[in-house]
């Protein structure tokens, strides 16, 4: 755990909030909604009744989720005190799930400010657990919803020499939302992604290489608005070394060793890495320490179901 050097609202995150709903179900439940074990799908109209039915079952757990909210939640957990160092903006529905989400964000000590509206329901992600198998049914990413909001915040950060971070999030972002992504890229000070997202990004930009270190360097050298800060690019690779640009060089950082049998759920690993990284960054630690904190957080989360964590971190 860090000796915190930051104050409330030091870290600001903006994204699509989701209420994560986890429940133990049986094969009949999966069959009813046409679901397969160990799968991840985007919910369709036919799945709407699933969310209503799943909450009626035994052992239902709720957590404040969504990629960005997961990361700021992890950052706050790593920092511990003061509370509300992490701030989150997003949109929810004026409904029952929205009320639960507000409560769960508060329990995580995140200063969440939700825009509440009546046109769309609160975003939800159902984790249907059958024995050792897990089926996840989530909804989308913020760049696909409100690129204007991201651009406004990005420009503000650049104009005021604040650090603006972004995550490549998923391969389809580079493939189908390349235009809004590249509009924001000149303002990005720290870019996160995994090896698959990095490879897709490189392909879409015509980098003509599949070497992840070279992709990181080429990404670092893309046009940048605020020249006071050199862009940092950080690509994770699961159990393999994390790749990061450090000044003019590209450095490999080994991850924390783990018994593969101890891994329970890798879905939140990327969000957790970013959260751990940011917890060190807001306390003005060097890049190497930020990556170490990211590795620790990811190592904790993959041993648990969902993006959840123990009461306090054991981080030195």
Summarize the structure.
With 316 residues, this protein is of the alpha/beta class. Helices cover 35% and strands 22% of the residues.
Using DSSP, what is the number of strands? 13
Give the uncertain stretches in residue-range form: none
The CATH topology label is UDP-N-acetylmuramoyl-L-alanine:D-glutamate ligase
Shape: globular
Provide the CATH architecture: 3-Layer(aba) Sandwich
Question: Termini separation (Å)?
Answer: 6 Å
Helix share of residues?
Answer: 25-40%
Mean pLDDT: 91
- The CATH class assignment is Alpha Beta
Count of individual helical segments: 11
**Class based on secondary structure composition and strand pairing:** alpha/beta
Number of domains: 1
Topology of helices and strands:
Layout: E1 11-14, E2 18-24, H1 27-32, E3 39-40, H2 48-54, E4 61-65, H3 67-79, E5 86-93, H4 96-107, E6 111-117, E7 124-130, E8 133-137, H5 147-159, E9 165-167, H6 171-176, H7 178-184, E10 190-194, H8 195-204, H9 212-220, E11 232-237, E12 240-246, E13 249-253, H10 269-281, H11 287-301
Function: ATP dependent phosphorylation of adenosine and other related nucleoside analogs to monophosphate derivatives.
EC number: 2.7.1.20
Active site: 271 (proton acceptor)
Task: Give a quick set of tags describing it.
alpha/beta, 13 strands, single chain, five-stranded mixed β-sheet, 316 residues, 35% helix, UDP-N-acetylmuramoyl-L-alanine:D-glutamate ligase
